[in-house]
Each structure stands twice: as structure tokens, then as C-alpha cells.
């Protein structure tokens, strides 16, 4: 909460003023002047004049009469933190508008609500404050004033040294384990101001918050020197409201910009949105010219921490966006400079947009491109890009490989308590995984050093273009990879010099051909056609609304396909259009995914020979094994999304080239997906690896690390996890409900056919004979899932049609599972029968 409780405020004041209050009674006689109170302080002039006491370091702030009643922008950024609590260097914490008010003898800092619009000509606008809460962050007593000059002095420690302006310490998550690492309490005695930088347009403070706890049960990661005393450094920026001629631009569902959502409360429309897209204030030097340089270009600084050998590639990647800006009428809209080694500014200075590098102990992302905006207009005021060195190495984060394959969504931090512009981008992490896979394929098939180098360069370019795209206002486009056919991607000449998809804003898989002689470009080296169109929509100085509408109507062109994170199907049961997905490629994803699985299988056969090096441990082989099976798991998810899938078209009614909004996936493709899952995911030999490979999947010992758990490879549970991911989608209540509903509007793969096919895929080939250990796991897991549909915690979410089919399948399994085959298979079948018999008794 921003509002300090009264009691907190009291406490703080009591402490600060305790010595003063004793002598404060005869105050009337000798009222202190501003001059008296700042006499031992250093004056730091800027937007808000600050005085810092040269002995105690305490700060006071001067507010002038003309600042009262005015709006300002507040923005904060983590200067340095710890990942244990999700506070990492460079992460932006959103911006908000606040107003300075004077209430009797107090100065108030009040957050403004920017979510609503009232047409000022509508009488309703008179009630615009009804049921809308402002946030009074702080109310501070005026310590001294100069009536003539209209100046008020307040103690600023109250604002900056506590969490007044924004919440720093994360709230504990509901359901969090009690042994999770937690920050102690804010230790006001240790919390301090590290620097004050004041400019005419903004006031910046770096504050080091210290959280202390006398004892901790979980010591956190080794990034913490002392887990009882943890520092989080935060930049606070107070900014004058820009007074320029910036024209807000409104959002459209057909293109993907970050937005600040605003509701028009005086509109009668069913879509009363005035959502502001986030964009830079780019203005032509010569407004009449078709193509002009901007008055002020968007300047990027390559931080001096950037490895030398990558600077040229990075610069080249940023400048690729100029191709898009030229189509929007701007020449040299982007420029790139290198931060000198002796620069006196650092990346925390919001006046500089910086491409930054870190090598964090546990990297949170591989690239992150946040920007901060004026919430009143959507104008982007600053941006940075954070890059993680780890993602250009072969360091493996096993837990993350699993996360990526299991399509877990990235957590979104909402602890800011205000509308946040930030979003997490996991492209770097995904790209590292893909690049490692591509390198494994390339090196196993004898690629030259030159080719390996090219692969690295291309993925670096793709990553930088993507993150820069975020800072220009673009959000993800997870449909972009649907542009080209597998044949086009395997045509080196066709793909040369292009973006491999419609947009660099996708999380597309790398282009790796199974036929190695056809290998062309691995990743994007240019921005895509969608990117160019999107930049045109966001930045062209349109002469009229008709001109903008005409360009928007080009959304039906195949190269302008768009669907963002909310539309993508990475998580089981989420979204509906299988074309919108992550870690996939081409306009035939089923074919592509099969190809990827076969490529992994090919490599698995020779892995031991190719990835064992004399004189080295087997860690590298283990890494490759996890990488390959992870690819299989991820490709399996891609295929599964076609079952029950519905294609979405977001074109407006009457738009040229538009189709109906909802079209179910054809019976042919759903059947094709089912056949592929049956063969590559559920079949008894689906995850076969040469048996002698398992003897070599050894981790290199380090200290006492195996105390954490036995080191042997957990082969069965890993395979089952991949199979379960697929079943989690296929048997999700959303998927089953959609199959039944869409039978009404074109779906020809009925629920009964699908559920019968699935049952057969999991039982038919071996239920009458020996069932191997992988299949025993799969069959029991699946049977338990059917039982859960009927009696589990979530059973009330399933419709009756789905429940009936679950019951029907259980009875079929009961009939099929006649004990036969070897002892292990007999035991397995008895187990199945017992589970089903017990479940049937519970069903009412
Ligand atoms: Zn991204």
C-alpha cells in the first residue's frame, strides 16, 4: 500500500522529532525559517530542490507554490537487487501520475487515477470522481515556509526512505511454502540515500533499502552475502509532466502495441475503449517531406560492459528497425552510440536508453526490454534493455529446460500496486535452449567453426531486434511463425536475409533442417513484414483517420498475422488458436514438430559417440540428453493444440479478405495430430534411447551437491512428465468443452471419436500382452486423470458430455485390462482394475 498508516507515520515522526518535541512548546516565539533549517545542508538544485545535511545525510525538499496542484510522473527502477525475491537489476516498476496538494499545514503527494476518460462536454463529466479512488501516498508537515516567495520546506526522508512511493518488498504469495526465502523487515536505521541527481526536468534518488531479520530458516541463494541483511537499491524518479505536442494514438485489436487502458465513461459504445498505445514522440524535422529525419531520434547506448566482439552485431540489430521507420516516413529514427569507458553517467540515468549486460547468478530472463511511459498519454519517456550473459553460454538451467518444455507461463509481478507497463520476456531463455539444440545438431553433423559463429550471430541479432521491438511499444506476436511453409524454410536462397517469420516479436523455434545439406539461415537477420506494418501504424504521421483505417485494413494480408501472449496456447487449456504458439515454426506445425522429434531421435542414437570427449566428464552428454528429450516434449505440446483447436480471425466485419471469426481445425488436421501423438508421444517406444546411453548420463561431482538428491537420471518420471503435459491439454475441461461446443459450428472431430481414439492410442497395442515400464506409467496416469474428471477436485468444471465419455472409457479399460503377459504386466493390469473398481463405487 502506498498510504502510510497513521500509526506508522506517527511512529516515524515520534522518532525523528523526539528530541525536538521536548523543546517545541515555546515554538511560537521563534519560528524557524527555511534558511535556519538548511544551514548545515548542501543545496542540490533541480526540478525539486533538495537539501542534504552534510553531517547526518538527512534530506529536506523544497516545494514551490507553482508546483502545488500540478501533476508529475513518478517512475521507479531496481538499481540492484536479488533474484531471490524477484527484484533484479534494471527491472522497471512502472510509472504513475501524482499531484502535489497543500492541505492546511501539510504537503500531500496524491496518486491520480488515469484509467477513465470523461468527455468534458458531457454533463456526466461533473461526476467524474464518483467511486474512483485516488491514493494519498504521503502527507508531510511543512517545517518552514517563505510566504513571500511561496516556498515550503518538508522532510523528504519520509517519502524516499520508506516504501511510500512504491512497494519494494514483495507481498507473500498465497500458498507460498513457509520455508521460502523471505525478506526481513525494512530497517530504517540502515536504509540510506546513495545518490541524488537533480535536473531541471527530473529529480532522481538512489535509495538502498535494507531488510533485516534476526534469524532466517531459508538462507536464500549464494547471491546473498548475509541473508539476514539484504539490500535492494532502487532509483526513484520524479518527473515534470512533459509539455510537448505529443498526440496520443489509440489501440486497435488487429495490431499488438503495449497499452495503457482507459475507459470512456461517457461513451455508449459496447467497446468504450480509449486505450493509449505506447510510442515515442517522433516528429518529422520537415513535416512536408515524404521521408524526413526526426527532430529527436531514438538514441541507444551500448553499455561499456558489453563484450567487444558483439558490439557490431548489436548495433546492426538495432539499426534494422530503421527499415521499418523509413516506411513510416522517418530516416535515421534510431541511432546507436557506445557508452565511453570514462562516462560520468550510468544506465540508471533515465535520460539515456541503454543496452545493458549482466551475468546474474540465476538469470531471470535472457533479454528484457522495458520502457516507461506517461500514463496520461502513452508517450514512451525512456527505455533500457537488459541482456544476460548466461544465455550465450552452455550453462544449463535444468529446471528451466523443463519449464520451457512444459510451457509454464512466466510469473508476472503485480506487487507494484499500480498499473504496470512491465512484462517479462523469456525469449533469451528460450533462444538459449534453441541455440544449444541447433549447436548440438550442427556440431554432430560436422559444421565448420564459421557456421557455428554464424548461428551465434544470428540468434544474437534476433534477440536484440526483439527486445528493441518491445521498447518501441510492440508486444509479442506469437502467430508470426505461421508465415512460411517448411519447404520455404528449407530453401536457403529463399530465406536468406529475411526474418524467418512475419515478426521478430515471436518466440519462434530456430530454423534447423533435418536434411543438413539444406540448412540456411538459423534465425532472423531482419525485421519482419508485420513489424514494418506495425511501426507504420504506430508512427506514421497520418494526414487523416481514413489513412490510418486503410492501413489497418491490411491486417488480413498473410504477412500481417498477429496474436499475442494472451492468445497463445503455450499452457494447457489456454487459448484456442493453435497457430498462435511459442517454440514452433512454419505454417504446418504438425509436420514441423514431427520433423523436430525425428531430428532429436536421430541425434539421440549417436549422442554418446558425438558428445563424449576424452579427458572430460559426462556432464556435456547429460546436457545433450536433456536438451533432446526436452525438444521432443515441447514439439509434442505443439501438436496437441490442434485437437479441439479453433482458428480465430480478428478482422472487422466487411473488411476485405476477412473470414468468419471462428473456424474449427479441419477433421483431417485433428486426426493427423492424433496420429502423430499416438506415434511420437504415447507409443511404447516413443521415448526410446539407446539403453547404454543411460549408463553415461552422469553429472560431474561438485563439493557436496549430491546431498540435495540422488544423482541418477530420473528417466521414467521425465518421460511421464512430457506425456502428462500433453494429456493436461487434451483432457483439460476447456479443451473438452470446446470440442463439444464447436461441433455446433463446424468441428467434425466429435468428442466421442476423439476420446475413443485417445483411449486406443494409450491401450490398444499392448494391453493384451506385455506392457513396458513407460507405458505402465502412462496408462495409470491417464486412468487416474479420467477418474479425476469424475471424482477429483476439479470434477465440477467438466461438462456432462465429457464426464460420460470418461466413464465410458474407464469401463472400456476395465474390460480390456485382463491380467495377462509377464508378472509385471499382470500386476499393472490388476492395479488398473482396482483403481477403476474403487472409482466406480464412488461415482453417484
Ligand atoms: Zn519478448
From TrEMBL:
Gene3D superfamilies: Collagenase (Catalytic Domain). Pfam families: DUF4953, DUF5117. InterPro entries: DUF5117 (IPR033413), EcxA_zinc-bd (IPR032534), MetalloPept_cat_dom_sf (IPR024079), Zn_MMP-like_bac (IPR034032). It comes from the Bacteria. SUPFAM superfamilies: Metalloproteases ('zincins'), catalytic domain. GO terms for molecular function: metallopeptidase activity. Residues 1-34 are annotated as: Disordered. Residues 451-767 form the EcxA zinc-binding domain. Residues 95-285 form the DUF5117 domain. This is DUF5117 domain-containing protein. It comes from Yeosuana aromativorans.
Amino acid at each position: 500500500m502506498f498510504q502510510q498508516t497513521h500509526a506508522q507515520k506517527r511512529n516515524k515522526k515520534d522518532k525523528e522529532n523526539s528530541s525536538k518535541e521536548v523543546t517545541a512548546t515555546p515554538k511560537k516565539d521563534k519560528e524557524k525559517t527555511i534558511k535556519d533549517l538548511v544551514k548545515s545542508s548542501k543545496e542540490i538544485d533541480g526540478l525539486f530542490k533538495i537539501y542534504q545535511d552534510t553531517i547526518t545525510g538527512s534530506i529536506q525538499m523544497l516545494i514551490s507554490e507553482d508546483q502545488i496542484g500540478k501533476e508529475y510522473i513518478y517512475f521507479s527502477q531496481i538499481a540492484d537487487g536479488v533474484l531471490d525475491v524477484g527484484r533484479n537489476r534494471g527491472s522497471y516498476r512502472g510509472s504513475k501520475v501524482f499531484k502535489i496538494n497543500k492541505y492546511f499545514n501539510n504537503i500531500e503527494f496524491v496518486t491520480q487515477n488515469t484509467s477513465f476518460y470523461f468527455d468534458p462536454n458531457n454533463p456526466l463529466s461533473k461526476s467524474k470522481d464518483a467511486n474512483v479512488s485516488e491514493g494519498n501516498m504521503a502527507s508531510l508537515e511543512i517545517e518552514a515556509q517563505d510566504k513571500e516567495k511561496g516556498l515550503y520546506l518538508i522532510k523528504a526522508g519520509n517519502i524516499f526512505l520508506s516504501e511510500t512511493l512504491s512497494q519494494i518488498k514483495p507481498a507473500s504469495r498465497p500458498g507460498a511454502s513457509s520455508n521460502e526465502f523471505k525478506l526481513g523487515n525494512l530497517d530504517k536505521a540502515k536504509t540510506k540515500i546513495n545518490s541524488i541527481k537533480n535536473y531541471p526536468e527530473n529529480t532522481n534518488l538512489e535509495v538502498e533499502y535494507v531488510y533485516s531479520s534476526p534469524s532466517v530458516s531459508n538462507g536464500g541463494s549464494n547471491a546473498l552475502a548475509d541473508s539476514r541483511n539484504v539490500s535492494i537499491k532502487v532509483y526513484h524518479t520524479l518527473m515534470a509532466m512533459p509539455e510537448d505536442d505529443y498526440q496520443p494514438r489509440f489501440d486497435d485489436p488487429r495490431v499488438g502495441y503495449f497499452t495503457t487502458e482507459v475507459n470512456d465513461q461517457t461513451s455508449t459504445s459496447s467497446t468504450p475503449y480509449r486505450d493509449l498505445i505506447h510510442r515515442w514522440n517522433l516528429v518529422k524535422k520537415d513535416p512536408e517531406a515524404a521521408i524526413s529525419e526526426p527532430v529527436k531520434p531514438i538514441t541507444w547506448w551500448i553499455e561499456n560492459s558489453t563484450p567487444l566482439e558483439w558490439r557490431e552485431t548489436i548495433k546492426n540489430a538495432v539499426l534494422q528497425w530503421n527499415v521499418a521507420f523509413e516506411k513510416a516516413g522517418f530516416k535515421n529514427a534510431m541511432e546507436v552510440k557506445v557508452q565511453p569507458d570514462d562516462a560520468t553517467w550510468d544506465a540508471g540515468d533515465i535520460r539515456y536508453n541503454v543496452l545493458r549486460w549482466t551475468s546474474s547468478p540465476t538469470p531471470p530472463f535472457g533479454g528484457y526490454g522495458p520502457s516507461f511511459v506517461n500514463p496520461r498519454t502513452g508517450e514512451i519517456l525512456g527505455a533500457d534493455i537488459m541482456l544476460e550473459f548466461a544465455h550465450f553460454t552452455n550453462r544449463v538451467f535444468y529446471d528451466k529446460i523443463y519449464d520451457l518444455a512444459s510451457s509454464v507461463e512466466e510469473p508476472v509481478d503485480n506487487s507494484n500496486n499500480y498499473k504496470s507497463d512491465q512484462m517479462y520476456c523469456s525469449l533469451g531463455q528460450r533462444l538459449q535452449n534453441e541455440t544449444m539444440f541447433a549447436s548440438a545438431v550442427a556440431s554432430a553433423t560436422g559444421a565448420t567453426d564459421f557456421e557455428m559463429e554464424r548461428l551465434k550471430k544470428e540468434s544474437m541479432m534476433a534477440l536484440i531486434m526483439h527486445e528493441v521491438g518491445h521498447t518501441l511499444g510492440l508486444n509479442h506476436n506469437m502467430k508470426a511463425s505461421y508465415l512460411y511453409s517448411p519447404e520455404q524454410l528449407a530453401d536457403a536462397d529463399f530465406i536468406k536475409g529475411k526474418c524467418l517469420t512475419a515478426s521478430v516479436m515471436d518466440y519462434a523455434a530456430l530454423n534447423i533442417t533435418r536434411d543438413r545439406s539444406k540448412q540456411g539461415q538459423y534465425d532472423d537477420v531482419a525485421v519482419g513484414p508485420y513489424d514494418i506494418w506495425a511501426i507504420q501504424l504506430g508512427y506514421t504521421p497520418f494526414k487523416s483517420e481514413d489513412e490510418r483505417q486503410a492501413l489497418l485494413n491490411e491486417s488480413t494480408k498473410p504477412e500481417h498475422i498477429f496474436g499475442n501472449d494472451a492468445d497463445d496456447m503455450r499452457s494447457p487449456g489456454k487459448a484456442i488458436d493453435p497457430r498462435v504458439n511459442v517454440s514452433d515454426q512454419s505454417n504446418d506445425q504438425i509436420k514441423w514438430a514431427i520433423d523436430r522429434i525425428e531430428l532429436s531421435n536421430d541425434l539421440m542414437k549417436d549422442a554418446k559417440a558425438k558428445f563424449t570427449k576424452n579427458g572430460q566428464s559426462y556432464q556435456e552428454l547429460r546436457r545433450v540428453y536433456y536438451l533432446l528429450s526436452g525438444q521432443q516434449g515441447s514439439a509434442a505440446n505443439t501438436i496437441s493444440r490442434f485437437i479441439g483447436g479453433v482458428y480465430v480471425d480478428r478482422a472487422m466485419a466487411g473488411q476485405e479478405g476477412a473470414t468468419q471469426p471462428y473456424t474449427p481445425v479441419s477433421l483431417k488436421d485433428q486426426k493427423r495430430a492424433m496420429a502423430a501423438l499416438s506415434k511420437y508421444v504415447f507409443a511404447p517406444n516413443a521415448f526410446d534411447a539407446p539403453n547404454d546411453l543411460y549408463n553415461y548420463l552422469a553429472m560431474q561431482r561438485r563439493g557436496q551437491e549430491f546431498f540435495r538428491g540422488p544423482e541418477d537420471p530420473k528417466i521414467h518420471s521425465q518421460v511421464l512428465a512430457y506425456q502428462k503435459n500433453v494429456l493436461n491439454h487434451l483432457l483439460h475441461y476447456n479443451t473438452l468443452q470446446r470440442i463439444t461446443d464447436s461441433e455446433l459450428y463446424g468441428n467434425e472431430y466429435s468428442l466421442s471419436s476423439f476420446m475413443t481414439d485417445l483411449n486406443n492410442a494409450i491401450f490398444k497395442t499392448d494391453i493384451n500382452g506385455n506392457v513396458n515400464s513407460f507405458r505402465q506409467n502412462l496408462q495409470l496416469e491417464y486412468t487416474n486423470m479420467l477418474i479425476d474428471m469424475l471424482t477429483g477436485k476439479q470434477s465440477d468444471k467438466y461438462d456432462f458430455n465429457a464426464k460420460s465419455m470418461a466413464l465410458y472409457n474407464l469401463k472400456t479399460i476395465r474390460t480390456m485390462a485382463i491380467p495377462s503377459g509377464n508378472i509385471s504386466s499382470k500386476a499393472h493390469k490388476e492395479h488398473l482394475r482396482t483403481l477403476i473398481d474403487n472409482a466406480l463405487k464412488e461415482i453417484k
